[in-house]
Structures are given as C-alpha cells and as structure tokens.
C-alpha cells in the first residue's frame, strides 16, 4: 500500500484547457455519485490559488473540505492534500502533471503519501484508520456508509 | 469480501480499537476483551465482522482461537482507491472529449 497510485490519461485539449477543466470545472465532471459525501446534488468548488481548498457543498449547505492546494501552476501542475472530512495532518497527497504532447495533453496523476501507513501490519494501525476510514467511507455510496455502533 | 466490507468493518471505533490491540501480535478473545467497555460476546461479534471482512485471521491454538491482523487486509482499500481514480479520470476524459468537440465546432 505504500507505493503511490499512478494514473495516466491523454485528453484532446491543450494543457491550459485540461488544467482548467480539471480544476475550475471539476464540478461538471467529477463522479459525485458515488464519490462524494452528499451525492450528486452537491457542488464541488476548486480554489484557484495555492493554499485554497477543494470543497464539496451539499444541497443542504453542508461543507466538506476534500483537500488543500499545495501547488497551483496553471496549465502545468497541481498538488493537493486529500483528506475528505478529516484533519489536514491526516492527509495523503495527490499530484497532477499536465504535459502538452502532439497527441493532446498527458495528465499524470499520482495519489501517494501512503508511507504514513508503515509496514503491512501498521497499515491497519489506528493512525492509518483515523486518517483513512472516513476518507474511504465518505467516498462510498451513502447507503454503504455504516452507522457507528 | 469487498472494499465495502472493509470500510464498513473499519468505520466502527470499537473495531478499530480491537485492531489496535492486535498490532503487537495475535491475541485470544479474552485478552482482547480485557479492559474494553463492552461484553465479551459483543467483542466476539466484532471479531467476526473483522474476520468476515478479511481484516483478521483466526488460528486455533489448543482450546482457544487466536486473532491476528491479516497481512493483505487492506488490499481491498487499495483497489478501491484505484477504482476511484480510474472512474474519476474516465469521467474527466469524457468531459475533455466533449469540450474538444465543442471548441472545434
């Protein structure tokens, strides 16, 4: 679990367009069903500066911060912490690099920071869980999110 | 066993407490329940949920059963995150194709 998750996608846009779609227009494409706290009636806003937040606002006005921008380099690079519903110090990190190629723009996404998990046994440690159970839980479908006994 | 089972199993604070107690090594139910504010049958029930979710292994030892953290227990979570980004980037790709089509009109 320690190695980062790595994904690559080429889109038929310029790097600037791809960056803008990913960030400013995240609300238009992010699969809020099932990957959100309050479902597809929520709105996702993506700050346009370092230090700003990625925020989900539910139809009922509830606010869920998904992460904070650690780097915001338009058309090139994004880095943000990822901690839906949790404290920032329990976050893992996502980076996205936008590279213009002849075929379009290559988007390389990594989701890492799993070293907080330590060894395999530690991966199920309380520190891991406190940081991750709700992160994962809130991204499960609402019906799957368990009631706390 | 799916990631939903894993998430469900881990979302309960008592079960997280149990996992925490097993970090130093395998224990029998009596030792796990020791000092916990719930009954031993309740602890047994939580242990069953954790085992069913693939997070614990159970090994008979004499007339006891020893519970331990399953080494591959969090693999489902990893797969879940993989799915999350696959789905999210697929949606991003579709939106990008749509946007490219619009701007070429």
Radius of gyration of chain B: 21 Å
How far is it from the N-terminal to the C-terminal residue of chain A, by CA? 28 Å
Q: What shape does the CA trace of chain A take?
A: globular
The total count of helices of chain B amounts to 5
Shape of chain B: elongated
* Element-level helix/strand string of chain B: HHEHHEEH
Most extensive protein-chain contact, per-chain counts: A-B, 43 and 42 residues
Number of strands of chain B: 3
Question: How many strands, which pairing sense, and closed or not: the largest β-sheet of chain B?
Answer: 3 strands, antiparallel
Q: How would you sum up the major sheet of chain A?
A: 7 strands, antiparallel
Low-confidence parts of chain B lasting 5 or more residues at pLDDT below 50?
none
Account of the protein in words:
Chain B: Keywords: DNA-binding, Transcription, Transcription regulation. Chain B: This is ArsR/SmtB family transcription factor. Chain A has 149 residues and is α+β, with helices and mostly antiparallel strands. Chain A has 3 helices and 7 strands; from the N terminus they run βααββββββα. Chain B has 105 residues and is an alpha+beta fold. Helices cover 61% and strands 13% of the residues of chain B. Chain B has 5 helices and 3 strands; from the N terminus they run H-H-E-H-H-E-E-H. The interface between A and B is large, with 43 and 42 residues.
Q: What keywords describe this structure?
A:
heterodimer, A: 149 residues, alpha+beta, 7 strands, globular, disordered C terminus, B: 105 residues, three-stranded antiparallel sheet, 5 helices, elongated
């Amino acid at each position: 679990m320690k190695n980062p998750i790595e994904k690559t996608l080429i889109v038929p846009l310029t790097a600037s367009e791809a960056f803008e779609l990913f960030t400013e227009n995240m609300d238009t494409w992010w699969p809020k069903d099932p990957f959100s706290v309050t479902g597809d009636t929520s709105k996702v806003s993506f700050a346009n500066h370092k230090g700003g937040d990625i925020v989900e606002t539910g139809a009922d006005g509830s606010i869920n911060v998904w992460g904070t921008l650690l780097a915001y380099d338009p058309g090139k690079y994004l880095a943000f912490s990822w901690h839906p519903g949790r404290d920032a110090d329990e976050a893992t990190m996502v980076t996205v690099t936008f590279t213009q190629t002849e075929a379009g723009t290559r988007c390389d996404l990594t989701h890492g920071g799993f070293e907080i998990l330590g060894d395999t046994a530690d991966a199920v440690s309380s520190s891991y869980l406190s940081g991750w159970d709700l992160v994962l839980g809130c991204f499960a479908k609402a019906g799957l999110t368990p009631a706390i006994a | 066993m799916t990631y939903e089972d894993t998430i469900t199993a881990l979302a309960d604070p008592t079960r997280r407490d149990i996992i925490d107690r097993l970090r130093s090594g395998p224990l029998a139910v009596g030792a796990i329940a020791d000092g916990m504010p719930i009954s031993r049958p309740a602890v047994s029930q939580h242990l069953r949920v954790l085992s069913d979710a693939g997070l614990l292994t159970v090994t008979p030892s004499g007339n006891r059963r020893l519970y331990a953290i399953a080494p591959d227990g969090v693999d489902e979570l990893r797969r879940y995150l993989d799915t999350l980004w696959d789905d999210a980037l697929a949606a991003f790709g579709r939106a990008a194709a749509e946007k490219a089509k619009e701007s070429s009109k």
